[in-house]
Amino acid sequence: MYSLQEYLAFFVIYAFLGWCAEVVFNTVNTGHFVNRGFLHGPVCPIYGFGVGIVIFCLSPLKDNWLLLFVGAMVLSSVLEGVTGYVLEKAFHTSWWDYSNEPFHIGKYVCLRFSILWGLGCVLVMDLVHPAVVKLVRWIPAPIGTIAIAVCLFCFACDFYVTASNILKFNRRLGQLEEVGRLMQELSDDIGGGLADGALKLAQTGDRWKESSAQWKQQAQQRKEALRSSIGSRQEQLHLAAVEKRQAVSQSLEEKKQRLAQLSQQYEKMMREKMPVRLLKAFPNAKSQRYNDALERIRQAIEKSKGKTDGLHQGGKGGWMRKK
């Protein structure tokens, strides 16, 4: 029914319209604007692919709303599941998760959204698509070709930049995770070192007291013969205790310095530019490798957002306070 150029035009148009629908849906739910979508630009390619597949496969059923609804629901659910799985394997992150939704299949498909996709596709095919077809065919072919080529090139550049940023972000999460692990180990070592040092000093003192008492008892029997030996032994124990205390103190000081360096490195990494837009666009995203570090970054962003909201809350209306 349609040429390749028309299908490419449909992809561009519905990717944009899908992004608009996501923005409206999330604005109503959250009370503030969120740039939804995987890419930076105002597009959600999954909508372009989804509607394009429905147009290609189900156009003969456009007059039968029931079959069109069921077919669209199945096709869109398969596409959503495959897309979520591929993104997870490519970037080691699950960008959305329907595990808490009733009647879900895995993490990326659930009945509620499958029904919404089905209904949405019925409305698109019945009301929106005829107008889109007229628009695409009204634009002269040379102009349409150039416009589609420019849009697809922008999509490709946007995807490359987004993918590169996510891969860099994953490496940064790994570094944060490693620094956090080292900080925890050093904290445990410092605490354990303090406890071990205290116990060893206490044990040394006990042994010194026992030896002193024993030698004093023996000294009463052989006072002159053992006097010099007692003094020498006490001095040796005292020197040994001092050396152990100095060694423990030096080791703890080195670990404290290393911990301070790691803390500075951690704070610096946390201040570096993070993909805040993606974390806002996908608030339920979970890293398969470094989720602890991702959660700490999300908490830091929320804390910063809370401070900003606190500064401006007095001058905002009720709509903004819904945040």
Residue fraction in strands: under 5%
Shape category: elongated
**Count of DSSP-assigned helices:** 9
Cα-atom radius of gyration: 34 Å
How many beta strands in the DSSP annotation? 4
The major β-sheet equals: 2 strands, antiparallel
Mean pLDDT, as a whole number?
A: 75
Number of domains: 2
Helical fraction:
over 70%
- Give the terminus-to-terminus CA distance: 47 Å
Q: Reading side by side through the largest sheet, how are the strands ordered?
A: 1-4
Order of helices and strands: HHHEEEHHHHEHH
Care to describe what's here?
This protein is mostly helical. The chain folds into two domains: 4-138, no CATH class; 176-284. The chain has helices at residues 4-30, 45-58, 65-91, 111-138, 141-221, 223-271, 276-281, 291-312, 318-321; strands at 93-94, 104-105, 109-110, 286-287. The strands form two sheets. The protein has a two-stranded antiparallel sheet. The chain has a two-stranded antiparallel sheet with strand order 2-3. The relative contact order is 0.10.
What structural keywords apply?
323 residues; mainly alpha; two-stranded antiparallel sheet; 9 helices; 4 strands; disordered C terminus
